[in-house]
Specification:
The strands form 8 sheets. This protein has a 22-stranded antiparallel barrel. A 5-stranded mixed β-sheet has the order 3-8-9-6-7. Strands 17-18-21-22 form a 4-stranded antiparallel β-sheet, with no helix packed on it. α1 (13-25) packs antiparallel against α2. By secondary structure, the protein is mainly beta. 7% of the residues lie in helices and 51% in strands.
């Protein structure tokens, strides 16, 4: 890969901007060594589609110094930041390709202020992601995703992109805008991430590129192959110049994760002295413990096609198509004891906060499960852009896009139990945990298949889709006769988006027995229950699992082996599983597969529409000489009208579970806030009304409509204090819209009655007691809004070097959180007022911090040392106020915990990157370390229903490539070289013991890259 640097100074801000476009054009081929690409200009808004296009090649040979590889990448990113009109950081193709960052999300964590959440779902911390999950900018997950300046999203809730689904092979670069200007599309308070793909006019002629790698995962002990091919050309025709680019990428990756987890730590009391603690001391005991192994892999394919036509010097047409598909799937083998052990045990050892650290517990019941999960995700983006520049004053562009995204999700779990009372020895006291299982009765064996029985099954399915039409037009007038005014730009944009989410609940059902319901157990060696249907192949749907090389041998092997449902039983669809498991339903009832008729599942269908109409005006200005010195900037305003519509499944009404005659006036109340009182007539009238109400149905539709208008002014100023020193000041308003899941109009109504007296025990508005409660989405939610301010001081020196400091402050209002409102419903002639928990706007908070960046190549060093360089950054983020949001408002654990006084989810106070670089003699090498401090992962983890925190985490990646000639490079990349371990804590800020330890693979890739 080659970049050209010219030492000639920039005569004006326009020239500087053109130079940034030229630097971008040189990076049009990912991993392409030795390709000298033309420096060209694109007079268009930075971040927009047309900003990624180029005019005819014009090579600037003034004092050329050729730089390549990682240095070219860092130099281009530096220049793009320096010449931008906004506060922006960039990464380029070489940044993404030079390290084993298999997705955009992994690469983005190298950017100042960007952190990566290493779980696919923060509420599921027991299952960490191989490639990283959510992207946070300056501590916020409110990140807008773009592809060439246009919308791009995944069909999870129709709002943002799962960046790990995107193949980095197709990209020329990524821009991270941290304070928007008026022409940038609204929707990101944290920032905007714009993915830029290649165009045929980026290169001066024909280009053919081919790359491939073999990626070895050392814990999984398996190799995964990937490859990418690109062909691009441009030619003159009687109809004008034309160009065509075609690229295809296939990426396979996989890993294994080993984890040991405790449960939520609950309070117990010692009845006798032990471990140095007196009788009567409160101690904290995990309410369960277990371990798991997950084998994960993914195939990701992507096609990118781009056609450009320039019928004249003033007119350019660009047509693009991108089709990306990702199919991750995994198999999990988990074993655990999910009953809280007793507090008294002579083997226990406690920590300084009286939390249980180690011990041996006997006669425990084992729960084992095999889970298969898979997703089929596809994004298709088709767009066209027409740009007309009739003269030096006018520029007009028009843009049309259609994008469609689909996502199907499958999860199937089968459970077994064992008639083998088990002794568990565990040690949670250090970085190397241990958990071993042996039969309490030495005459038994955990490898005896005949002692295991079929326990339960659970499935979950989703079928989501979202699509959008978007069109925009922009007109810019450039002033050629003013010393102050540079240009005036106006534009409009219209979008029409639809999103449909179809999802089931988690459908758990009994098979033959449970420890708490023995029934007639069907053992793994049997073909079915006596007197029922038999399946001769049922015993073959099991497998003996040995946790070999668990934690790479740094933890003892959990046991000789355990019998699990086979992977093939749960991987091949729920109908296949049911064909076998129906023979185990010894109670005559139990698990049956979910129907794909999502209307039968409460809240299962959420149809959303959203139309936006936006207009903006932007004035660019600047002076080379003035009382304020050399400065430039822009001021503008963006006005957006948003109209939403939603429909969902019918309102559900719960049924009282007690006897209709339970409530009797005069009954003494002995517990709760009303203890000492007696049941009154109002109590019993409410109780009777609930039964009448539950006997009917609610016919009112579950629909909602909303609309709102936002006015978003912005100002960006840049002062050139010296030729190589500039100061930026920026202020803007920004918004982020509610997710489509939050706008779901579904309502679930229920009752909260005391089971003894029949009085109301639910919590309503202002904490009052009420028997009538419910949960609901809120189609009338408004965006979260921010007033934000940035300051940046940037010093550029040498050919590739810079020192930068950026400070930021965000004043955020309208956080979305779970509140309680009163709503009236009528059923069966009975009208009742329910206190409904639903998402609402209202909280207020502040985010502030700073970023420091430093990049330098030490050209002054002699000989081979002259190839050394360093690039690093440090970020500090602090927050106050604000509110966490419950993902599922129908889960009372989530809504309760989201209201606790906790930090914002995903916000690390400190983070940094440090990279040592070498570029000389055909060698391109880098060792990069990324670190972030501890943070709140979730306010309510699944199955634990308590806050979970991620401890500080750092990871070392490295690469070394060698250019055999100007066409071919070979190299080695390493990922997670230090075998970093993930530690999780559980609890509130005053007591949060470590509860999770997770190891995953080191990965080593052997690669080649070629270009002709």
């Amino acid at each position: 890969m080659t970049n050209r640097f010219t030492s000639s100074s920039h005569a004006s801000s326009i020239t500087a901007w053109l130079r940034a476009g030229a630097s971008l054009a040189t990076l049009s081929l990912l991993s392409v060594p030795g390709a000298a690409l033309a420096q060209t200009a694109a007079a268009a808004p930075q971040g927009s589609e047309t900003a990624t296009q180029t005019d005819e090649a014009q090579t600037d040979t003034t004092q050329d110094v050729v730089v390549t590889g990682i240095r070219a990448s860092l130099q281009s990113a530096r220049n793009r930041k320096r010449d931008a009109e906004q506060v922006v950081d960039s990464i380029t193709a070489q940044d993404i390709g030079a390290l084993p960052d298999r997705s955009v999300s992994e690469a983005l964590q190298r950017v100042p202020g960007v952190t990566l959440q290493r779980t696919n779902e923060n509420r599921d911390p027991a299952r960490l992601s191989s490639e990283g999950g959510g992207v946070f900018i300056r501590g916020l997950s409110w990140v807008r995703s773009e592809l060439n300046g246009r919308d791009v999203f995944s069909a999870n809730n129709g709002r943002g992109l799962s960046f790990e689904d995107v193949s980095s092979d197709l990209l020329v670069g990524v821009d991270v805008f941290k304070n928007p200007s008026a022409e940038l599309v609204e929707g990101g308070i944290g920032g905007i991430v714009n993915l830029r793909t290649r165009k045929p006019f980026d290169a001066s002629g024909y280009v053919f590129a081919l790359s491939g790698d073999a990626n070895y995962a050392d814990l999984r002990k398996k190799t995964f192959w990937s490859g990418n091919a690109l062909a691009s050309g441009r030619w003159q025709t009687p109809l004008g110049e034309m160009g065509l680019l075609l690229s295809y990428s296939i990426n396979n990756i996989g890993n294994r994760t080993d984890s040991i987890t405790a449960g939520r730590y609950d309070r117990g009391t010692l009845s006798q002295p032990q471990s140095g603690l007196a009788a009567g001391t409160n101690v904290y005991i995990p309410n369960g413990m277990g371990l798991r192994r997950i084998d994960w892999q993914q195939k990701r394919t992507a096609f990118d096609g781009s056609f450009q036509w320039k019928p004249s010097d003033t007119l350019t047409l660009t047509l693009e198509a991108l089709v990306s598909k990702a199919t991750p799937h995994d198999v999990e083998y988990a074993i655990g004891d999910y009953d809280m052990p007793g507090s008294d045990n002579s083997t226990y050892k406690f920590g300084q906060n009286r939390e249980l650290l180690s011990g041996v517990i006997q006669n425990r019941n084992l729960n084992l499960d095999t889970r298969a999960g898979s997703q089929d995700k596809k994004t298709q983006d088709f767009s066209g852009n027409l740009r007309w520049v009739p003269n030096e004053n006018w520029a007009v562009s028009a843009d049309l896009q259609y994008i469609k995204s689909t996502a199907k999700v499958y999860s199937m779990t089968a459970f077994t139990g064992a008639n083998i009372p088990t002794t568990i020895a565990f040690d949670f006291s250090g970085d190397d945990p241990s958990m071993t299982f042996t039969p309490t009765n030495s005459g038994q064996s955990l490898t005896n298949k005949n002692l295991y029985w079929w326990a339960a099954a659970m499935d979950h399915i989703e079928d989501n889709e979202a699509d959008e039409w978007a069109t925009r037009a922009d007109v810019e007038y450039t002033f050629t006769d003013s010393e102050f005014l540079k240009s005036f730009r106006v534009g409009g944009r219209y979008t029409d988006r639809a999103a449909t989410t179809r999802q089931s609940n988690y459908n758990w059902g009994l098979l033959s027995a449970q420890y708490w319901q023995p029934n007639t157990a069907v053992f793994l060696n049997q073909t079915g229950f006596a007197g029922g249907p038999q399946n001769a192949a049922l015993p073959n749907q099991t497998q003996l699992v040995n946790y070999n090389n668990f934690f790479r041998g740094q933890a003892p092997n959990p046991g000789a082996g355990f019998w699990f449902p086979s992977a093939s039983l749960v991987q091949n669809g729920t109908a296949n599983a049911y064909d076998y498991l129906k023979s185990t339903l010894s109670s005559g009832w139990g698990w049956s597969p979910l129907s794909d008729d999502y209307s039968k599942n409460p809240g299962g269908i959420n149809d959303q529409t959203e139309k936006t109409t936006a207009g903006y005006a932007l004035l660019r200005f600047g002076m080379d000489q003035s009382p304020l010195g050399h400065f430039d900037g822009n001021i503008g305003v963006r006005v957006i009208r948003t109209e939403t519509g939603s429909s969902g499944t019918p309102i559900t009404i719960g049924a009282p579970t007690s006897s209709p005659s339970l409530c009797v006036v005069g009954t003494p109340i002995t517990t709760g806030p009303r203890a000492g009182q007696t049941v009154n007539a109002t109590d019993c009238a409410n109780y009777a009304a609930a039964f009448r109400f539950a006997g009917g149905s609610i016919t009112q539709p579950t629909t909602g409509n909303g609309s709102y208008t936002d006015v978003l002014p912005s100002l960006n100023l840049r002062f050139f204090l010296k030729d190589n020193l500039q100061l930026r000041l920026a202020a803007a308003k920004a918004i982020v819209r509610p997710t489509f899941a939050q706008l779901n109009p579904y309502v679930a109504l229920g009752y909260s009655f005391d089971s003894v007296t029949g009085i109301g025990t639910g919590t309503g508005v202002n904490g009052r007691l009420t028997p009538f409660t419910g949960s609901a989405g809120n189609p009338n939610l408004r965006p979260t809004r921010s007033n934000q301010f940035d300051v940046s001081l940037e010093y550029y020196f040498g050919r590739s070097n810079s020192i930068t400091f950026a400070g930021f402050y965000k004043d955020i209002s309208n956080y979305i959180f779970a509140g309680v409102t009163q709503q009236t419903f009528t059923a069966n002639g009975q009208t009742l007022t329910f206190d409904v928990t639903q998402q609402t706007n209202g909280s207020h908070g502040k985010i502030k911090g700073f970023e420091i960046g430093y990049t330098q190549f030490f050209d002054m060093l002699p000989g081979a040392l002259g190839g050394l360089g360093f690039s690093g950054n440090y970020t500090f983020v602090d927050s106050s106020g604000g509110q966490n949001t419950a993902v599922n408002v129908f889960d009372t654990n989530q809504t309760t915990n989201a209201g606790l006084a906790l930090p914002l989810e995903g916000l690390s106070k400190y983070s940094y990157n440090a990279a040592l670089v070498y570029e000389k003699y055909g060698i391109s090498a880098r060792a990069a370390y990324n670190w972030r401090s501890h943070y709140l992962l979730t306010t309510s983890a699944a199955n634990i229903n308590y806050p979970v925190w991620s401890e500080s985490y750092g990871q070392l990646d490295a690469s070394i490539l060698y250019s055999l000639n100007k066409h071919i490079k070979i190299g080695v990349q390493g990922y997670n070289l230090l075998n970093s371990r993930t530690f999780l804590d559980v609890g509130d800020p005053s007591l949060k013991p470590r509860y999770g330890w997770t190891d995953t693979d080191r990965r080593f890739a052997f690669l080649f890259r070629s270009v002709f």
